[in-house]
Design brief:
Elements lengths: L6 H14 L3 H4 L2 H10 L4 E3 L15 E4 L2 E8 L11 H19 L6 E8 L5 H10 L7 E6 L9 E8 L4
Parallel strand pairs: 4-5
Antiparallel strand pairs: 1-2, 2-3, 3-6, 4-6
Length: 168
């Protein structure tokens, strides 16, 4: 029997015991309960720097739960003149963001399971696919690609994904 106890394990067990008696809300503040749930394998919401999100964040770019990393839609957000935009440059920008966010969540490009790609023009598929394939030299994940009427944030492409956590 393992007798090693951590503060988190103690707090989680103590909180569950209090919950059984119906006194959790009176004893522990809600924020402490939420933190204990996060630490005990619950939902982790992270910003673009890998730090926990705040109550003021409406959309979190990275959410980790049950061994999976969910990366919110990433766009190029290109501040250059639209005449200079290319699908190749935008795809590279977006895939670099995807790579960064999956890494923040504890995964790698090889642990990406599924991606959704949104293009403003279906004619951009070949250029997007050419750049996309360079990010997956060992074979790519499942992918869906659709054309949409428009994308926010000055981007020709937006991508979201789900990846597996491969490290803590």
């Amino acid at each position: 029997m393992n007798l090693t106890f951590t503060r988190r394990a103690f707090a989680a067990r103590f909180a569950s015991m209090l919950s059984a008696f119906g006194v959790t809300a009176a004893v522990l503040p809600n924020r402490a309960l939420a933190q204990n749930a996060q630490d005990a394998g619950g939902i982790r919401k992270l910003n673009s720097e890998g730090k926990p999100g705040s109550d003021k964040d409406v959309i979190m770019p990275v959410v980790v739960h049950n061994g999976l990393i969910y990366v919110a839609g990433q766009g190029a957000h290109d501040s250059r003149d639209p005449k200079e935009w290319t699908i190749e440059s935008h795809t590279g920008m977006v895939m670099d963001k995807i790579k960064k966010h999956v890494d923040i969540g504890g995964g790698s490009m090889d642990s990406i399971l599924q991606l959704n790609v949104f293009l403003v023009k279906i004619e951009h598929w070949d250029g997007m696919h050419k750049v996309f394939s360079t990010y997956f030299p060992h074979g790519g994940p499942a992918r869906t690609t659709v054309a949409v009427a428009a994308l926010p944030g000055d981007s020709l492409v937006e991508i979201n994904c789900i990846a597996a956590v491969t490290r803590k």
